[in-house]
Design a protein that fits this description.
The chain has 583 residues and is of the alpha+beta class. The chain has 4 domains: 166 residues; 70 residues, Orthogonal Bundle (Methyltransferase, Methionine Synthase (B12-binding Domains), Chain A, domain 1); 231 residues, P-loop containing nucleotide triphosphate hydrolases (Rossmann fold), CATH 3.40.50.300; 63 residues, Arc Repressor Mutant, subunit A (Orthogonal Bundle). The protein is 30% helix and 21% strand. Strands 16-15-17-18-14-21-22-23-24 form a 9-stranded mixed sheet. The chain has a 5-stranded antiparallel sheet with strand order 7-8-4-10-9, covered by helices on one side. A 4-stranded antiparallel sheet has the order 2-1-3-11. The radius of gyration is 28 Å and the shape is globular.
Length: 583
């Protein structure tokens, strides 16, 4: 049975995460907002009817469909499963997908529950729990297909019967998180040997903490004390945020993998918040990745992102690009309550936009961004785009790779596991012109302020720059630089209070700035030999070494004679100053 055939059946519901009798649970709903029941076909709908009103869709089991849920068995970011769960998923040989949080997996197959049809729920051998269910239950549905499983629901009655017998035999309580011989792995770690984890100390830390939590009955402080006294102690463990996050992950039952597991990759279709302009382009802000919007203070990063996300929420046209309706939330970091209110009022956005802004408390601002975002994602299921304003406010030193990279890595893992697009704003430097004025002409992904990790680890990069420092109302240039595909550049300005695309403004005549202090031969040769708009390429005939040549070009960029783009250096339009300079 294909997924498309399954979607045509009336066996689908929407769902919401709610607290029922003191316990958080996923409650099924009909598209009309009324409660649905997994044992009442009259409350079921088609997939299209549910998807039209909610991103949170579930499939009702029974009537020939059985679901197997593996809880805390994998990590969608690494694509890795614990060995026994991987064996079970692949052994069922039917359609499999990641669960919404990216730490579990569901397998759907054509079969009937054996015996009396009651569900089977048991602790996993090297993962948290396995649930096998049929009639009377429903599973969440994500379409994040696991590449080593079929794309269709297969008839697998025999495989299901064998799995049920195997699982039903497990009666012991408790959870075993780590595969293999636990005592042996624990002894190796306590001897300072972390070879089981491919030499990765962070993974070794997670494994050790997972062992310690069972030996100390989930006591946070005893776990922390034993970890600090272990052979894995090093300077990094002095960071209380790192220790706290690692222990909390272990207490939540996140899986740990040794170096031998093979991956089961997510081969689902790539999704973007803004669709690609053509086949030669790439969409903007892919789900499952981190993207960045750069510009100096006052360049309009927040306004542009909020306008874009509001359009995306409605599935509207976004400056020539198509989009699908996707909900968003904003984590506001760098503004106080009053400042945030003034900003939102000035933006003139509808009340629905203001309701989607989450202002971070002082305590949250002291945590790591991935930790804050993870809690927000769990509290807002179905939100597909997360806008983090002022990400660089979280960096203790934005110029250091070892400070920036871990923050982005953690956000990337979270984005992949949760399958959401993370869009964050960061600063960008103001270059100085020869007259000493600020210039905001950014070119290329590396123009983002701070460590090179920003550009290297981001997918879509958007740079916003002013075209005239003396005129606040002048159009601003937007450079959209995807990881793959063609870059896009356009200019925008306010027309009747709305941000609209406009034509590229004509360059102004530049005043003569006087003779250069160094590199005069190179400068004169560049101006004499290259035409307006022509790419500048180094050659020995320019009268200097390549090192001196590029040093001079950098100075000429600040003076306005040369423009740097993604594909090289280009001589700007000639002005009277250029001609005087050449003479």
């Amino acid at each position: 049975m294909t997924i498309d055939e399954l979607k045509q059946q009336r066996r689908w519901v929407c769902w919401k995460r709610e607290v029922v009798k003191g316990k958080e649970t996923k409650v099924p709903y009909q598209p009309n907002g009324r409660r649905a029941m997994s044992n009442s076909p009259a409350t079921w709908s088609t997939f299209a009817e549910c998807a039209a009103v909610s991103q949170l869709v579930g499939i009702v089991l029974g009537n020939g469909i059985v679901g197997v849920d593996f809880d805390r068995c994998c990590d969608a970011f690494e694509g890795k499963f614990t060995p026994i769960s991987r064996e079970m998923v692949i052994g069922l040989d039917s359609y499999g997908e990641y669960s919404p949080n990216g730490f579990g997996a569901h397998v759907l197959l054509v079969a009937d529950m054996p015996g009396d049809g009651r569900p089977i729920v048991r602790p996993g051998a090297d993962f948290k729990q396995i649930e096998i269910k049929g009639a009377g239950f429903y599973f969440t549905f994500t379409e994040r297909h696991l590449s080593k499983t079929p794309h269709e629901l297969m008839p697998r009655q025999e495989q299901l019967n064998l799995l049920c017998k195997r699982v039903a035999a497990v009666s012991q309580p408790g959870i075993v998180v780590i595969s293999g011989n636990e005592d042996e792995k624990f002894r190796k770690l306590m001897a300072g040997d972390f070879s089981d984890y491919a030499g990765d100390l962070s993974r070794a830390d997670m494994a050790l903490v997972s062992f310690l939590k069972r030996r100390h009955n989930n006591n946070f402080f005893k776990i922390d004390e034993a970890w600090m006294a272990s052979p894995l102690y090093r300077e990094k463990l002095e960071r209380t945020d790192y220790r706290s996050m690692t222990i909390l992950k272990a207490l939540k039952g996140e899986p740990v993998f040794d170096a031998t597991e093979e991956t089961i990759e997510d081969d689902g279709v790539d999704e973007y918040i803004v669709d690609a302009l053509s086949k030669d382009h790439e969409g903007w802000f892919p789900k499952g990745d981190v993207s960045l919007v750069g510009g100096s203070s006052g360049s309009g990063k927040t306004y542009w992102c909020m306008v874009l996300l509001e359009k995306a929420r409605k599935g509207a046209d976004i400056w020539g690009h198509k989009s699908q309706a996707r909900d968003y939330r904003v984590l506001m970091h760098d503004r106080g309550a009053k400042g945030m209110r003034r900003t939102l009022n000035k933006l003139g956005l509808p009340p629905e936009a203001k309701e989607r802004v989450i202002r971070l408390s002082r305590k949250q601002q002291g945590l790591q961004p991935a930790e804050v975002l993870e809690a927000a994602i769990e509290a807002n299921p179905g939100v597909e785009a997360w806008f983090v304003e002022g990400l660089d406010m979280w960096f203790s030193d934005a110029l250091k790779m070892n400070v920036v990279a871990p923050v982005l890595d953690d956000l990337q893992r979270l984005a992949t596991r949760s399958n959401v697009a993370v869009i964050a704003t960061v600063g960008a430097p103001k270059e100085k012109t020869a007259e000493g004025r600020d210039s905001e002409r950014y070119h290329g992904r590396d123009a983002l302020f701070g460590s090179a990790a920003l550009a290297r680890k981001a997918e879509t990069v958007v740079l916003i720059s002013k075209t005239d420092m003396d005129d606040e109302n002048a159009p601003r240039q937007y450079s959209v630089l995807p990881r793959n595909g063609r870059a896009e550049r356009f200019w925008m300005s306010f027309v009747d209070g709305q941000l609209c695309e406009v034509d590229q403004p004509e360059p102004k005549e530049r005043a003569y700035i006087g003779p250069p202090k160094r590199g005069s031969v190179v400068r004169l040769n560049v101006i004499a030999q290259f035409k307006p708009g022509e790419r500048i390429v180094y050659s020995p005939e320019l009268g200097a070494s390549d090192k001196t040549f590029y040093k001079c070009l950098k100075e000429m960029i600040g003076e306005g004679f040369v423009e740097k783009r993604d594909d090289g250096f280009f001589y700007r339009t000639r002005t009277a100053a250029d001609r005087a300079y050449a003479q």
